[in-house]
Amino acid sequence: MPPGNTHAKAPAKVVEKVTVEACIAIAQRVQQARLVSGDEAGSDTAALIAEAMRRELLKGQQEGAVV
Question: Which of the four, 11, 22, 43, 63, has the lowest number of CB atoms within 10 Å?
């Protein structure tokens, strides 16, 4: 905290839609790469991560936390 600031700021909960979409795209590419390389467990995990991000994006849009 800066000197003289006695109150900690709460972290911002607003994220940009393009940031979340970029993360989803990365997770999908990781999933595809792992599938091609034969790493089924890694592929499944990356797919789960992408799906969780999609759900959070939808939830954030409904709550107005995604801009």
Answer: 11
